[in-house]
Amino acid sequence: MSDSPKQKGLNTSNVGKSSPAREVDVYAGRPAQGHSGNLTGNRRILKDTAADIFNRMQQWKVHQDRGCVVISNIFNLRMERLGIQFPDQLGILVKELKYLCEQMFDIVEGLKIKLRNLTAISVLEKGNSTPLFISWTTEHFCMVKDECKITEKILRAYQKEQKLHQSLLLRIADSMDPDILLFYLSCWTYQPYLDHTIEKELHCMIKETRHV
């Protein structure tokens, strides 16, 4: 009887290559519509906050892509060291994945602070219907959409995704089943809580604040 075919290793040359992360310059872009020169006050805070939120998401992409490579390497290591529960290189790879999860957690915590900043400005500008940039008022940055403020919608999505990543980290080190490892890799890669509308909201915010 012939042996069943062995699971092949993953080619990591194209793993973890999403759209390139591109940060925006806080001080770049055009002045608010109807205003010239440097921005001040709440306009300045909103513009800087929007840029910082966008840039944090680009940092997330970098860590996300690297995590795909690390998990693929863990899978390949398991295929090379079948039956060995803790191969020599496993600890190094898991340690790197843990570091990536910590960085992503810090990104989400930073988003919480930015959300508080936006909420505070929204309270100060309450009742002001004048657009601060192109068409959005201050409240629009925290406006209710689909029963959730836009900025809160972004934050909640990344909070859920970060918790999923942390859960995967706790399971990957102990898993020796190749099919389960591939499932974990898929969960990390496709980020089920970050749908296309999140990316759309981010780009709308950057366009509104005239960074692009």
TrEMBL record:
<protein>
    <submittedName>
        <fullName>Cyclin-dependent kinase 2-interacting protein-like</fullName>
    </submittedName>
</protein>
<keyword id="KW-0418">Kinase</keyword>
<keyword id="KW-0808">Transferase</keyword>
<dbReference type="GO" id="GO:0016301">
    <property type="term" value="F:kinase activity"/>
</dbReference>
<feature type="region of interest" description="Disordered">
    <location>
        <begin position="1"/>
        <end position="22"/>
    </location>
</feature>
<feature type="compositionally biased region" description="Polar residues">
    <location>
        <begin position="1"/>
        <end position="17"/>
    </location>
</feature>
<dbReference type="InterPro" id="IPR023250">
    <property type="entry name" value="Cyclin-dep_Kinase_2_interact"/>
</dbReference>
